[in-house]
Amino acid sequence: MAxxxxxxxxxxxxxxxxxxxxxxxxxxTKLVRSYxxxxxxxxxxxxxxxxxxxxxxxILVVIALIxxxxxxxxxxFIALSSITTVVGVAMFAQWSILSNITSGVILFFSFxxxxxxxxxxxxxxxxxxxxxxxxxxxxxxxxxxxxxxxIYPNNLLLQKGISILxxxxxxxxxxx
Length: 176
What we know:
- The chain has six helices and five strands.
- By secondary structure, the chain is an alpha+beta fold.
- A five-stranded antiparallel beta sheet has the order 4-3-2-1-5.
- A hairpin with a 3-residue loop joins strand 2 and strand 3 (139-144).
- The longest helix has 31 residues, at 8-38.
- It starts with a helix and ends in a 10-residue tail after the last strand.
């Protein structure tokens, strides 16, 4: 009983934060689904972006809990510097993964092409003309007119010039 009296403010703040977490997760899910519906985005792409947003919200909640429960600032800095060091080394080794995930989220919200479009990637060494079969977290899956399947990294797709040759193709030669 003494625990509850001593930490009443922290417990109330934690409860309020829990309610806010649930509300933010529901609100962000509804907003992303609404955006996806208006732009006719596939369900699995929508779920992927929702997962990334929920991860970000959860990280913010953990930071808020640390502040609410009064963890000493020096302890936070020690923990964060240790985590940052480990993550920094891991991200340096896996920078392309982070870059591709970020690019996948950008493609979800702002790029003008959709699955089914036929695009041309303007790469001076390896130009590609293909239909977009799927857009994943890390790669875009393309299929050329010859039936060749190409897995193209999202981050490179944002760096190259793209022409949309046919919106939601209706040309039979690109179909199976």
